[in-house]
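User: Run a structure prediction on this.
Assistant: Running it now.
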Amino acid sequence: MARELFGVILLIALLPYFGKAQQDTSLVTTYNPSYSSNYKSPPERVPPTLKFETGILNYVGEIGKGYELNSPFSGNYAFRLSFVQPVVRFLDFNAFVWTGRVSANERGIERNLNFLSNLFAGGFSFTYNFDHFLKEDRIVEPLLDVGFQVIDFNSKTDVIDEFGNTYNYWSDGSIRNVPESSGLPVDETVRLQRDYVYETDLRTSLESELGRYDNNALSIPVTIGAQMNMTTRWKARVSATYHYMFSDYIDGVTPTRSGVNQGDGANDALVYISAGIQYNFTKGDDSRGLDDDGEFYPLDDFEDSDNDGVWDFEDDCMGTPEGVEIDLRGCPLDDDDDNFPNFRDEEINSPFGVPVNTLGVALTEADIDLIYANFYDSAGLYGDDESMYNILYSETVIKTERKAEPIDKVSYQVELARFEESVPSSAVNTILTVPDVKVYDNNGQVIVTAGSYGSIDAAKNRQKELSRKGISATDIVKVTPDGQVSSVTGGTAEFDVNEWKLNESKDIIYRVQVGAFTQEANELVFQYLPNVIKLTSDDGYTRYFTGTFNGYKKAAEAKINILQLGFEGAFVVALQGGKKIPLSSVGTSLLEERRQFLETQESLTENQKNNLGFRVQLGSFKKQPPTEALERFMEIGDIESRKGDDGYVRYFTKFTRSFEEANELKKELLGKGYNGVFVVGEFNGEIIKAKDAIELLNR
């Protein structure tokens, strides 16, 4: 009956379309309540819009009445689809269908009842938006909706188990295969467990008491809620609906039954808490608006709302202030490429690649010192999070490779291991050997995954690849943008470091360890580092790593850039076969690689030439240098310190592309008593011999 009724309602709602097919469409309009307060009724043949809602549906009736667990948010999911037709400015007509299920269980000394019912309904309603009392340019508006509907229900109850035994509820709280009144000793009875399979038709089982009643009912839904007008086409809403039903048969408990199963005389009801969206499908070139005089004017997809000369559907930066210079994408110009457009950049020509603050001004050394102090500050002695947040970085600061990953969608990954609170220290290096490893803190558990894919099949291919490399007993998981991890296949990742056959691999993976802490670090400063991995191990340390590199050179470049950001103590880690290996063991191949490059006769590119130059090395120290030496270095100005892989910290003068200038500075320093200083070369951020730099310069 509900389906037939909805068919009639749907036909009425779509009548405007049939009229439209027979007449000229040039006057077809879309009602938009945000344009004029003089408007009293929309033009004819306005196409309805589509609304979809989902939420929690609850039963209100005799079964379980008064139980605390029967809250409005503990029910079952329901879904509602509506066609919305504006009638006048303050009133909409809705034709809808919805489906869901309700259930209830009551367990007591005297009465034990349960049911589950699948529902399908169709009907119509009118929505009032309180336009008479609200401002014209409102974004959020309250709603009151009243309608009429027919609900089909098909109620079932669970009275027997999977073996056909009837449930008999005893006064001791148990369920047994015979009634308590049978007089059998307890040890001669069989204790049963409910299987929660609702197998028995409730109407059939109660036919002797209630007769053959209808499995449908008339109902009046009353809704209150709020609606947000996000755009002219999109709206969002939240609401609560009370469905008053003209029936008391959904749960099978009525006043006509006898004994403890007799009802209280009140009809059954439903409560639906929901959220939804509404979209207007009207084509852009058929759209109409209203001007201040209530007259229609054309609106279409070729609108330029910010008047910058770029159509909205092609504009990547809508809302650009008037008069601001833009590029072909409609975005304000940013000459120094520091992510701050010229019109609000207080330093338009800040040096390329230099960190900038929230005003687009290059950071000073004091700002960098604040980053460093805040990074190592577990006691909260230096500044606050807000001051740290105001120090931003240009995307060009860290020249490490970034892999684009979706930020607004879930990803599918291969779970490798799952630990409680921390990772065994013996497993840290093994985990870091996996190039695409990721680590998540999920409700107290540390979950280790590999890869990030848009489909389950792609994740399974990675799973097979890992299995061939000796990493088995894995699971496919889904990871949300906020880092919540849930299983897809229902498997379990069993981690056993001894079963991972990584020791056969000859591949070397390089990472940069940013820091290791025994207390919680201020993680705000990590947000500008790419691919950060946080590993908390059972030795009490939390280590932070960034990047995955196949060669030492790129890892070293990343380390230098990170050091320049104030992360003092960052160093390169080499991993092979699940173990950390000393850099000295790969040093021969690195020196050979450098020697081969220097011996080639290839000309340098312009970019390589810009990164080739000289410095004067002032000294090197295994431990903290003497205060007197530091003070003398500071007198020179523009001093830079770098920590080498050998553990020594070396101090250099500023970078220059001229050997003559560096050599003159060396002589000047020797004359002032700076003994032991000498000229070194620098290429792509790496210190090399001065003669090698001169040779490269002369190509």
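The longest strand covers residues 140-157.
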